[in-house]
């Protein structure tokens, strides 16, 4: 009987395990095909019985993130961080966790996770952009309130985005239901598939012709002559069977858009989407996740050589593209590039950025609130002459999931921030004004921002950028110790004043730095040449003196105690002196500035004599190192 019960329990357990396995397999199929809305309830159900399964947690967090449910994404990314040592490419998940936190204005915690990302991969471009912009929230605030934005009258309760100037009308993409009540829904968002619509004189209509099909149609761009429409369409890859995006062309025939063809730079291996055209009609810009890019999706440009003939796509480079996602480009009539990104520092998720991308050393700027928010802000377009335009966002309190907003621009964006560091240099007595001191301003990465000399009254002034944030003021003058002072330059305090005190270098010639600087003794173990760990910081202090005073040389004098014989002690002291010399050379000091002298037992600090037994403390005093300054 017991045997039958055990067999029954085993069968039930195996059945439950099989059911869970089938559930996970089904969820993974939905996830692999971007059907996140279908995957979410399956992962949730699976995790109720398998709460620590990392792969399911990871995919559920991503599913919520990609469908815009950032509250649930934050919850599951936080849980994933418990198991972060088990996750491959954890930097990507840390970044999405940081983005999810920003969606609820938890900027301090979001920045803490960017710091964690940097510890794992300091070369990550997203981390470097964050670290290089410590004032990013202040800079965003500086450019905020330059627009007045309101919800557009043609929004529906579905997804509405990708507005495009369409002669005197607005062309946009929407998943709004039509009279035919399209039942087919996207597995990604669980909304009807997207079509292109025209808003003209207060009336709404579908785009005429053959552009709208059975899949998604979105993100269109009209050629300057009004005869060619480029647009994005979803399709399934012939190679993988998975959904991808492609750019298509349509030609105007009467009032109908016909003759639909693919552009030549599409591929079955990656997505190509979201076209925009410059005012000359000779260059097309787009987004793609093709191989060779910098991140999840990059911005590219391609030359239009003729009707349906294109050059080779060219990546817009790392100043624009990050390891995150750059998408939805727009080129204005003044040749400014606007685009959305989650890789550049922003308020959260996708923000709108702008740059004069063809100028040398251009900078990328966040255009601030109210265009940007803690949620996705995308598909920005602007009429530079009329100072108005449109963008889309899934921010709170809209009519639908994504809404289109129209705006008027009140002021131009501020793209510079001039500042000045002014100060005076005095001696230790606070009275002696020090002239001809060299003052160098650097950022925390060591890049020189400017330099100057102090004048006859000890004063200096160096112009700088208040975008840099923390900066170092380095002052050097012969006969004085080098000074390094950290200051903070900000948008709110563009002028920074500082007074720097220089201390005279004490006369050091023929003196021991250990005694002069009141340093702890350098120690070795008894009868060996291995430096004790505590002594390294003492030697580093000597190295600092040598770095700050390039004309100084030293003699490293090594002494032993009285134990063992004369020959052994002399050899041991020479070896110890050379160990220290080699350590200092490895720190970047030229060996030409370092003499060594093994003194053995001939200069005892405390001589007990031959008939007195020395204490261990006296042996330690005798077993010493001296760093004697021999030239200056």
Automatic annotation (TrEMBL):
UniProt GO cellular component terms? cell outer membrane
Q: Which residues form a coiled coil?
A: none
Q: Which PANTHER family match?
A: LIPOPROTEIN YIAD-RELATED (PTHR30329:SF21), STATOR ELEMENT OF FLAGELLAR MOTOR COMPLEX (PTHR30329)
Protein's name in the database: OmpA family protein
Q: Which residues form the OmpA-like domain?
A: 511-632
Mind telling me which InterPro entries this protein's record contains?
6-blade_b-propeller_TolB-like, Bact_OuterMem_StrucFunc, OMP_bac, OmpA-like, OmpA-like_sf, TPR-like_helical_dom_sf, WD40
* Major place of residence: membrane
Tell me the classification of the organism that encodes this protein.
Bacteria, Pseudomonadati, Bacteroidota, Flavobacteriia, Flavobacteriales
Q: Which CDD domains match?
A: OmpA_C-like (cd07185)
Which organism does this sequence originate in? Answer: Spongiivirga citrea
Protein keywords: Cell outer membrane, Membrane
Tagged with keyword Membrane: yes
Q: Where in the cell is it found?
A: Cell outer membrane
